[in-house]
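Handover notes (outgoing to incoming on-call)

Open items:
1. Acyl-CoA dehydrogenase family protein: sequence verified, structure written out, both below. Nothing else pending on this one.
2. Nothing else urgent.
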Amino acid sequence: MAHASNPRPLNRQDLLDIDTMLSEDERAVRDSVRAACDAEIEPHIQQWYEDGALPVRELARMFGELGVLGMHLDGYGCPGMSAVDYGLACQELEASDSGIRSLVSVQGSLAMFAIWRWGTEEQKLEWLPRLAAGDAIGCFGLTEPDHGSDPGSMRTRARRDGDDWVLNGAKMWITNGSVADVAVVWANAGEENGVIRGFVVPTDTPGFSAPEIKHKMSLRASVTSELLFDNVRLPGDAVFPDVRGLKGPLSCLSEARYGIVWGAIGAGRASLDAAVRYSTERHQFGKPLAGFQLTQGKLARMSTDLNTGQLLALHLGRLKDSVGLRPEQVSVGKYNNVSAALEVCRTARTILGANGISGEFPVMRHANNLESVLTYEGTVEMHALTIGKALTGVDAFR
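Acyl-CoA dehydrogenase family protein structure tokens:
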């Protein structure tokens, strides 16, 4: 059996030549998103992070023109691209900042996917083209002040009043909330024996408010809000007609978690790149930091963990495009990749020493952001229990 004997030249930023596993079109998608981030995000992201503010509408229109809002959905103005394309986009977005990827992820994988998958034709026609173009902003209301990992115990209530629905309650930690034009809201429809129902809620509906959450130490370059419902009256056709229970919101979370599997690798990659550059430029004891064995050991571990995570993300993307993904498989990806990327960022900070906490470098910003990514859309513990149940058949959630 013949064996190839001419390996490709060494690429220090892609030691395993993972690039060869991507098609030319996939690389083009990745490169176009990276170019947009380099031009429109990188010059401003540190200031946005320090200010705790983000020009969401301007960015949404830019991302709409780029075609990344709901890019893995088809019809209604959505590009209909592959799961791998979407993953590569998420990776490049989060290489700039987790808050940027969150903006796109919440818009496309939560708000838009919910309407695309569960909405009526009228709801789709009304909202999806505007959301895909970035002319409207969407948010997704599931988490509550007292119920995060246990959404089945939510206290937000929807009750029938004639042909209408009336919402009362609150949601917490909602990305895009205070700038959104439409909110997908999940509520306990008490008169239907507590079953969870989903609603499309225009944010100009009387009784709806969304105060922004301030003083965050993480995801500062992201708009995060409460959602408050004070007798919010909705027409009967505001409800998703064909989904009841947690199947609806959990299907949306699987879509968003898939993007996180890729995005976390982008944040880790940016931190590794910063550590490699710094270690070759910074001299101590007469030679660059990169010349010390302990430093090289750290870099080797970081690179290997990120390459492993990249291969996992790509494998899950190929599965999603071919046969689909099970929630347990998405849990494996988030459980592994976010934890690995966070450890990469922490290790990169040690290589940069005191400079690692400076805004001149992206490392501490990425580490702070990933502390949130570690626990949102399923805490690391909940994903561990999901994997454990898949392995043993025993439910340890309760």
